[in-house]
Specification:
About 45% of the residues lie in helices and about 10% in strands. It has a 6-stranded mixed beta sheet with strand order 4-3-5-6-7-8, with helices on both faces. It has a two-stranded antiparallel sheet with strand order 1-2. With about 525 residues, it is an alpha/beta fold. The chain has 2 domains: about 190 residues, no CATH class; about 240 residues, Rossmann fold (3-Layer(aba) Sandwich). It is elongated.
């Protein structure tokens, strides 16, 4: 029995703080009247206003009941409405926890990005409107009166209810950012996305559990759940928005250049390809010449620009290939000097080289450097130009169509061992920076060269003309450097396969280059 002197007092069934509270036992004065059927006039507005005299809860109770919803238990708040200050504190406190966890996603100094933080709130007005629609009382005569604390109660409880799942998701992303190797090999990516998807479903279930506490309509609750699922899906598409960005105020490195597309640039690219093809030096009868295609399709990392340039220069200096190298490169600063590294230009370059060289006796060296995926494709990017990834089948088809017989192929990328079976022939030497199931190292934004490119080409091939010898000497160096760098997902395990028919050709080339004047 309630105290008649205090209309806001709790019923006797509810202890002063955290006791059980059955929503079906809410006093009538806390129920929102439902319009009556035909012939039965609704209660006057003044009567409704007087009847709705809602109780208040302490801040700790809102927090506790929100955590109940996090484990999918019904929150026991009855028709209580949070005070404005309580609502602000709850929302900002939960947001602050996630903001602090997001700071862990950036290693080293970082500064707060207000614009990125504000972008994370884009879905709140949409969800609030949908929750308001779901919370509005039904207009049917037989609909039961709904117990509700209104939109404010939904927001207060939901902010806390989704917090545990959000903490797990943010912590998982922070772990992935600091230890990418752990999640990028073997079953790592699968485990990562399974856990991440589970946290999103947990978040969805907690949010819907709060709403279902107040809404008696399964249809409205279901529609809200579908909308929430759509919002989560859209949010994942914009996951690149960050509240914290690396602080480069003390870094003298200039900001990366951006490619500006124009018709004149497209036309100049076509002219550039033709100019470089026309400049290729023809083959020399009776001499095993080296021609080369160096291919770097990933514009976002300067390491691939540096490495491909180093390999191009090395082949011209050490393998008598002056004027016989086509260097295809994606980079904003080289659009007027280098042909773009795209699948179409890959075909054109191989065809052009085949037209200049002796396809039966000369040697074509192909060097590709980029990030690699577990599906054994090379990443390609040159925003805003759209460039599809490069597969081993693309390269094999281009080489077979050209008729070039003797091939030396080097793939510097993660999981590049998956290229070997697709490219191997009796007249091909192929070496890769890793096997088919491991990552390679040295392809980060701060890397000068990849571990593979540095050890095999920049170091060993400067003292020998034998690709096999250079590879053999480079492998232990790569392993030692990976250990020193803390590579945690196992040795990259570079691979090599040498066809029987190309061995004597490369041996003859080595002998010629060893006696040739520098």
């Amino acid at each position: 029995m309630r105290d008649q002197k205090s209309p806001n007092a709790w019923p006797d069934t509810l202890p002063s703080q955290f006791g059980p509270y059955d929503p079906d036992e809410v006093p009538d004065t806390h129920r929102i009247p439902v319009p009556q059927g035909p012939g039965e006039p609704d209660a006057p507005v003044s009567a409704v206003t007087e009847a709705v005299d809602l109780p208040r809860l302490p801040l700790g109770q809102w927090w506790w009941q929100g955590l109940r919803a996090a484990v999918l238990l019904a929150p026991r708040t009855g028709a209580a409405v949070p005070r404005p200050l309580q609502l602000i504190v709850l929302v900002l406190l939960c947001s602050g926890v996630l903001l602090g966890l997001e700071r862990l996603h950036v290693a080293g100094p970082a500064h707060f990005n207000l614009r990125g933080w504000l972008l994370t709130w884009w879905s709140l007005p949409l969800l609030a409107w949908c929750a308001w629609w779901a919370l509005s009382p039904a207009r049917r005569q037989d609909s039961p009166a709904q117990v509700t604390g209104g939109l404010a109660a939904w927001l207060a409880l939901t902010s806390v209810a989704v917090l545990p799942a959000s903490v797990v998701a943010y912590a998982l992303m922070a772990w992935g950012a600091h230890q990418p190797a752990r999640w990028s090999s073997g079953y790592g990516p699968t485990v990562f996305w399974v856990i991440y998807a589970a946290t999103l479903l947990w978040m969805l279930a907690a949010d819907v559990r709060v709403l279902s506490r107040f809404v008696r309509s399964h249809v409205r609750t279901g529609l809200y759940a579908l909308l929430l699922l759509a919002v989560l899906g859209v949010g994942m598409q914009y996951a690149s928005s960050r509240s914290w960005v690396p602080d480069t105020s003390g870094d003298d490195t200039p900001a990366p250049a951006r490619l500006h597309l124009s018709q004149s640039l497209f036309e100049s690219q076509q002219d550039l390809m033709q100019q470089q093809v026309d400049a290729l030096v023809p083959e020399r009868p009776g001499v095993t010449d080296v021609y080369a295609l160096v291919f770097a399709p990933y514009a976002r990392e300067n390491v691939f620009r540096r490495e491909s340039t180093m390999v191009s220069d090395l082949l011209q200096e050490r393998f008598d290939a002056q004027g016989r190298v086509l260097h295809l490169l994606n980079h904003a600063e080289t659009a007027d000097t280098h042909v773009w590294a795209t699948p179409e230009n890959l075909d054109r370059a191989v065809t052009a080289l085949a037209a200049r060289m002796d396809k039966e006796n000369d040697v074509l060296v192909v060097y590709m450097t980029s990030h690699g995926a577990q599906n054994h494709q090379l990443a390609a990017s040159h925003w805003p130009l759209e460039v599809p990834p490069i597969s081993p089948e693309m390269l094999r088809e281009a080489l077979d169509t050209s008729g070039i017989r003797h091939r030396v192929i080097a793939i510097s990328a993660c999981y590049s061992g998956g290229w070997i079976d697709a490219l191997a022939t009796p007249s091909t030497l192929i070496m890769t920076a890793a096997d088919a199931t491991h990552t390679s190292y040295g392809c980060g934004a701060l890397s000068e060269l990849t571990f593979f490119g540095r050890a095999v080409f920049d170091e060993q091939l400067r003292s020998t003309h034998s690709f096999e010898e250079a590879f053999k000497k480079a492998v232990p160096l790569i392993q030692q450097r990976e250990i020193e760098a803390g590579k945690s997902d196992g040795f990259s395990n570079p691979q090599i396969r040498v066809g029987a028919e190309i061995t004597p050709v490369l041996k003859g080339l080595e002998e010629r280059l060893n006696v040739a004047p520098r």
